[in-house]
Amino acid sequence: MSGGNMTFVKDFFIVGFPGLHPNYYALVSAFMFLIYMCILIGNGIFLLLFATNRSLHKPMYFIYISLVMSDVLFSTCTLPKIIARYWFQDGTISFAACFFQMYLVHYFGTVNSYTLAVMAIDRYIAVCYPFRYHSIMSNRNILIMSIVVWIFAHSSIIMMVVRASPLPYCGANTIVQCYCDHVSVTRLACTDRTPYSFPAFVYAMVVLLGSLAIIVFSYSCIILAVLQISSAHGRLKVFSTCSSQLIIIALFFLPRCFNYLAANIGITFNADLQIAIIMLYSLLPPMINPLLYSLKTEEVKKIFIRKLKVNMATSGPPSEVNMTASELQRMHFDTNNCKTYWQIL
Predict the structure, then answer these.
(1) Quick one: which H or E segment has residue 113?
(2) What is the DSSP string of 127-180?
(3) What is the predicted pLDDT for the residue at 30?
(4) Which pLDDT value is given to residue 83?
(5) Which Gene3D superfamilies does the protein's record reference (predicted)?
(6) What are the structural domains of the chain?
């Protein structure tokens, strides 16, 4: 095709689930809106508890705050558009906005992956080097590590998006996905995408498998250390401390690894199922993580229950001893009359 006959796209259309019948658009949009609200409320409650309780200002919770922020921002950059696509039939997204969303999607995914690796290192040091934990994993050091994670995650993502944006997009503009990601968008390019897709795939594997290797190493050392504890109660306590993080890590990595493995060994799914799997491992962790930390972490649970009781007590019905302004005024008037009466006597 000659350059003069090419018509380059100026915007894209996010299809979402290609096999979804229009009769179910409202139901799907309402369901996604409910998920978004759960993510905002659940993570917002934890942020509020963290901000108002200095007892939670510990390294482990600082790491989790980084994860919470990444989860909320990821959900905010992806869910509103797909909700609008099904609720208002507004699936159009501009060229620049699509690539910006692509950048954010992969950026927050990278931040999550690195943060989970930091979380595993934190537990490794806490279990294997308990006497040096507070000197190594201080709040200051955790803050520095979190900042490094958020900054370092930018590097390769920017290059990936910059390399993808100049490609000639001259064909279809329909993105068969719930948001703009590198694979779905570059698939629409009117050129050989191998020189662009392969480096992106390698980067994704380095981030995913590199973080996973750190996590596997950390928890392998933790398991070996726990098995050396003679007390069954001690072993149970350590496993209980790590269980919530293990669930979070499993929710993030296992579906992703399955998705990449299935794609490389030739296991294929229909488009709707594949998108459902991607949305599951993208949105389930942000929704479940606050619940896990509230139920599995005794300290957070106690603070949450205490706050709940205080709010219920302050917002409850007034007690019988409370009086209205008119009652107090009448009482004051009666008291003055009583004083005058006794003075007369």
Answers:
(1) helix 95-128
(2) HH-GGGHHHHS-HHHHHHHHHHHHHHTHHHHHHHHHHHTTS---S--EE-SSS-
(3) 95
(4) 95
(5) Rhodopsin 7-helix transmembrane proteins
(6) 11-221 (1.20.1070.10)
